[in-house]
Amino acid sequence: MKSLAIVATHPIQYYAPLYRALASSGKIELKVFYERFPTEEQQGQGFGRPFKWDIDLRSGYESAGETAGMNELFKGIASHRWHAILVHGWHSQLYRKVIGQAWNAHAPLMVRGDSHLHTDRKRWLQWLKTPIYRNLLSKFSVCFAVGTWSAQYYRHYGVPDHRIVLSPHCVDNTRLQLQSVQLRTERSQLRDAWGIHQDEFVFAFVGKMISLKQISDLIMALAELRESRPELKLRGLLAGDGPLRSELEKLAARLNVPTTFTSFLNQSEVAKAYVAADCLVLSSRSETWGLVVNEALACGLPCIVSDKVGCGVDLIVPGVNGLIYPQSNVPRLAERLAVVAGGELRLNCGDKRVRELLLKFSPDRAAQGILRGMEICRG
Length: 379
Known about the structure:
Layout (H helix, E strand, L loop, with lengths): L1 E7 L7 H9 L3 E7 L5 H4 L18 E4 H13 L5 E4 L5 H12 L4 E5 L9 H15 L4 E4 L2 H9 L7 E3 L6 H12 L2 H7 L7 E8 L7 H13 L5 E8 L3 H10 L4 E3 L8 H7 L2 E4 L8 H8 L4 E4 L5 H4 L6 E4 L4 H12 L10 H9 L2 H16 L1
Parallel strand pairs: 1-2, 1-4, 2-3, 4-5, 5-6, 6-7, 8-9, 8-11, 9-10, 11-12, 12-13
Helix pairs in contact: 1-16, 7-11, 8-11, 9-14
């Protein structure tokens, strides 16, 4: 049986389902190596409070970490213990060290990343990166694309199509679907608990309250609609925490926009926000993917995203399960909110195309991509 070593900086809630799917396939011997296991304080950076994930991120597959795990990893690379090694990028010192060691040992190396070209980086920086990244990416046996923009990124830097394999970004769709079905019977109580009137149309944001997410655009768009469409009963639901929370609370109060701020919602609780809301809004000025969109769609919630959100081209079927608007254009965002809240456009996450999307962007499909990459390495 072929063996695979996956290297990650720390346990990530979105990657654990993929690892479990790989381990349960019975087709490879898998071991995941973690550089560190964050403390609650370290885990809470950017969320505004210490916490630990309330679901198990290390069950269902073999793993090791910290000093003992790193020693095992590097000894295994040198002794050709694994048929292939997978890293989640090259942005950390650990990944760069693994890449260097694997190259020196002539070990098959694969990378899975979500970088794309739809950013506002300066032209001179892009020009400088091109020869460096072309050389870097030429060393990988397989480059796993998580979606359309990711594949375009690899091609831009000279990776041939036969070395680009789709391993789509995903969440635990099954768990979220089950949770949302159970919670839907409690929707009225959830809204009551958060001070949401039953006749209000709720636009939600879920995640870290940081500048990159440009959450203020949602609040300003809602304020604009309160002036232009006073018949609409609208509310914002901001689920999460972070350094901009106080600033956003003040903005909502100043603009007189009804807004509910929840505390940080852990993995077992986040489905409550998707069930209580009527539509997710992700107004980020830059987003490599946006896995909250996967989560929302798994819970049956339509989404409005900016055109800088990486998943938009893959997950949003305009007019069916969501809409896309020009980033930072608050009037256009307000238009999208109005047609959805006003009923001019009926979004339907139960559409056959949406169900097929959830099957495509699932842990099983992501695992199938990794297994295909292993075959390429073997060839």
